[in-house]
Amino acid sequence: MFYRKNVGSKECVARVLGGLLIVACSLTQIGTTPLGLVLAASGVVTALTGLLGYCPACALSGRRPVEPRS
Q1: Contact yes or no for 50/58 (Cβ under 8 A)
Q2: What is the DSSP string of 20-61?
Q3: Which of 22, 33, 62, 68 is deepest in the core (most CB within 10 A)?
Q4: What's the predicted TM-score (pTM) here?
Q5: In terms of C-beta distances under 8 Å and separation of at least 24 residues, what long-range contacts does 22-31 make, across chains too?
Q6: Residue from 27, 31, 54, 67 nearest 43 by CA
Q7: Which of 42, 67, 68, 69 has the alpha carbon at shortest distance from 57?
Q8: How confident is the model at residue 1 (pLDDT cuts 50, 70, 90)?
Q9: What H or E segment, with its residue span, contains residue 16?
Q10: Angle between the 9-25 and 34-52 helix axes, to the nearest 10 degrees?
């Protein structure tokens, strides 16, 4: 792969669930208006960062996941 994972496993699960909730809520509550579609697209991006385990914004800021202490 060309990237290093920078999102922890618990955060991945939270991002996927949060992204799916954003998509569902935006399309059911706002509908297919331009605002609803923009919010749904942001939910898809959030879910994808969870599925891939890589967030470009976190990479730009230099953030790394917390490593468990051994």
Answers
A1: no
A2: HHHHHHIIIII-SSHHHHHHHHHHHHHHHHHHHT--HHHHHH
A3: 22
A4: 0.82
A5: 22/46, 23/47
A6: 27
A7: 42
A8: low
A9: helix 9-25
A10: 160
Tokens of 21: 């909730």
Centre a 10 Å sphere on the Cβ of residue 33 and count the other Cβ atoms it contains. 11
Express each pLDDT in 10-49 by its tens digit. 899 999 999 999 999 999 999 889 999 999 999 999 999 9
User: Token digits for 24?
Assistant: 């569902």
Place of tokens 């051994």: 70
CA-nearest of 68, 16, 18, 69 to 47 is 16
